[in-house]
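Forwarding these from the shared drive since the link keeps breaking.
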Amino acid sequence: MKINVRFGLIISAKDTPVGFTAGMTTGSTTWEGDNLVFPYVITNKGQGYSLNSGKFTAPRDGTYVFTVTAVSWSSNFLSLDIVHDGVSKVRTYSYSYTYHQTGTNLVVLELDRGDAVWVTRHYGRGYYSDSVPLTTFSGFIL
């Protein structure tokens, strides 16, 4: 528990906000890794998202919402999964017949403290982004 001296409030860990948004500020036509690490962090309330691994680790038990949006590079296929502790839960899909197709998906997951969620490549290797991120990964607790 934390005590807010200014307002005399007692705040428990379950009331502490948890949420993040991370993105890409450059594209890649040759990405071959398994996990997609989003290096540009916009928000990381609760410090659950790791810049090193690209994984979100739940700081406490709860119901979380995760979303990924990926823009395919040029006219390439791109398919990404949101993964919970090694199990793919949902998939994005960007088809190749027109330039820069967007694939997006969202999942609601029950997590225990210490569970990890990340984005992995199912198929493809090229994603597009700009100085303001187009390819992003976000999550928050309900």
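-- next protein --
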Amino acid sequence: MSSSSAESKMALAKTVLSTVGSVAATAMLVRSIFHDYIPRELHEYLFFRLRNMFTNFSNQLTMVIDEFDGLVNNEIYEAAQTYLGSKLSPNIHRLKISKPEKEKNFNIAMERNEEVTDVYNGQTFKWIWLCRQTESKHFYNSRDMNSTLKSEIRSFEVTFHKKNKDLVLNSYLPHIMKEAKLQKHVNKTIKIHTVDCERMYNLHEMWKPVNLNHPATFETIAMESDQKDMILKDLERFVKRKDYYRKVGKAWKRGYLLFGPPGTGKSSLIAAMANYLNFDIYDLELTSLRGNMELRRLLVATANKSILVVEDIDCTIDLQDNLANRATAFRSINGFGMQETKVTLSGLLNFIDGLWSSCGDERIIIFTTNHIEKLDPALLRPGRMDMHIHMAYCTPCGFKLLATNYLGIKDHKLFKEIEELIDIANVTPAEVAEQLLKEDEVENSLKGLINFLYKKIKENEEVKAKKVEITQVESDDEKKENVENEIKEKEEEMDLPNGESS
């Protein structure tokens, strides 16, 4: 390379650097003049005009999604926040992460001024999350608990080709809403809600939530495999039939009645259903309510994708809804009026199958009872309790599952004897599980269960014999009474004083 050529390149580099320095100095000067001599109120206006000037020469369209629509939360903003949390690229420099107390998952979100690129139907969409401070005394962000006069205005901006405006409005945004709901459902911690009687008149606080940590699943509950498969298929069919329910004009709900002796696993089955569907549970104690109005209020306050449970329905409500019982459901207030004091059968039926049953979507209603024969037939028909599930005594199949869960074994030389005894012992899965927990050694545990089963069979035989004895005594008393009545009738026919014979 000649010396003249090298000198020319050096001169060119100096010229470029000088030019860049001049431009930077000019920019700094313009910025200083802009801030020092132009009123602050005009800053945003000028930036707005400049941005519009450049936008007029661009084929890009920017859509702004504010956090609030007036004073109301903007659902699209919340959905975008959740949706974009799963779209963060490896090139992103900053992100936000949080974990609410007692929740099991981390929440990941964009940090302010970070950009995310999303591709949908082959089209590119660029997102940015913007936050700016305002000192307006007329604006207050309800989520900013620490702010007084200064508040933060937050929004998403999505930029895309102008030709895709209809695609965004008709397809892309609905897709974001749907995906965000799915992500929230999958990541949420299941909760069980109980009624807070002290806050019955606050719609958002009348249910008190607690994390549901029940480990029951369909793999662990002691139930016949055919019955489990039937329940699983019914649940899967239910959650997939939103459009079908709307088409036929029915509320999107499903009713289950679990009946059987205590200890047969009704509560465990409910927990397994909640864990399988990832649905919250609302545990409703009807005896704590003062009337049908409170029942309706609680229904409105329950969320979609939930299971409403009323345990021991035969013990918690007067199931003979006649006029006399309706009258006792009200009491006088200082002689000026009547106030409802309990839930009635008609109120409950309207709640599960009337107009109020359509106040939410994708809900499951479960009643449990130990005595199905005590229930009013009106409560049992399809549309109210669509599926009746008999929770029976432990079977050999159920025992094998419990042995696998509790002892970690699938077979043993004592299994045959245990299975023969279980067939006739009438023991609940809870009783079998309790025996398996008593010993650490497998063989000792199984032998303890055998002794328990023999004892249980003997007790059952004694109870059966006692019932036969009572029946015979009742029969003898009835026979004696019939004879006495015959004697009395005979004496009356003969006009003899009672106790005298002819």
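The longest strand covers residues 123-134. The first helix runs from residue 3 to 37.

- D.
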